[in-house]
Structures are given as C-alpha cells and as structure tokens.
Amino acid sequence: MRKVIKKFFWAWDFEKEEKWLNEMSAKGLALVGYSICTYSFEECEPGEYTHKIQLLEHRPSHPESEQYIRFMEETGAEQVASYLNWVYFRKKTAEGPFELFSDIESKLKQCILIKKLLLPIGWLNLGVAIMNFANLAFNAPRFSWIPFINVFCALILFAGVNEINKKIKAYKKEMFIRE
User: Fold this and answer.
1) CA distances from 36 to 44, 49, 68, 86, 131 (A)
2) Residue from 112, 109, 115 nearest 160 by CA
3) Taking a C-beta distance cutoff of 8 angstroms, is the pair 39, 83 a contact?
4) Cα-Cα-Cα-Cα dihedral of 4, 7, 8, 9, to 10°?
5) Gap between the Cα atoms of 156 and 152, Å rounded
6) pLDDT computed for residue 134 by the predictor
C-alpha cells in the first residue's frame, strides 16, 4: 500500500528531515518517492531501512553524480528519489550503519554546498524586492505586497544561511581541536 504525506522542511534542516524519514521507517513506511513537499511511502518491516539525504554538487544526471550514485549502490544503498540536486538514499538497516558523511570534512563540505545554494537565492530575492519597491515608488498607482514577499523570502533564506554558518563554525572548531 502506498501512502503519500505532505510535509515541509527547510533545506538547512536536512538532518531533521532524515530523522523524520527514519521515524517513518521505524513505523513501517519506507520512502519510495519525493516531489515538492510530497513524500511517497510503501509499507516495509518496521525499521527495515535507514534513510539519508545529500545535496550533490551537480544534478543526479551529471556524469560525476551518476558515478557517485553508482558507488553508493555498490555499498548497498539505493537512490529512491531526487529533487533538483538533492538525492534521497535508503539502505537496509540489517546491513549495518549507514553514513554519508563519515568525517568532519565531508559534513563541512555538505554545509558549504547548502550555503552556496541558499545565498544566491537570498540575494536574488533581495534584489528583486529593491526593484519592486523602486517600481512602486515611481510607477505603480496602487500598493503591492510583492516586494514585501521578496524581502520575507530573503530574510528566511538569510536565517537559513545563519544556521548553516553555525554548523560550519562548529565543524571548523571540531577540526581545529582534533588537529
């Protein structure tokens, strides 16, 4: 039986999303598909799978990404979904621990990739907001919420960058301590 659940997670909360996916697996639901805020699950044995999420540098169809996904499949993981550069993996729990980021450097690299995704979109929204405010000031005869929506989006994205920066700082501190 297939079950579809609509749920939203921020890009910088991918660990929270993973935790939720693994809680669903513990309840006997394994991820089989993902689209914008829509998760598709099929029944499985409770706890049968461990799920992980990763942001790739390139789209999954890019040769480097395809090579990486094949490598993951050789380790027993399977790609069950992808969205833009995000890839959703699952692996049978009985096969042992499943970690995509086994060291601090790989965790740091993942956070930097997420930051590189969020920052340009935040700045773009801020730039569009400024242009929309200018347009309202000089041309528009009536009030519009559009520039405020752009500012709101930019602020949310910059808040996400701030959260990622905290993680980056913690990983760098941990790397320094271990050296």
Assistant:
1) 23, 22, 24, 11, 28
2) 115
3) no
4) -90
5) 6
6) 86
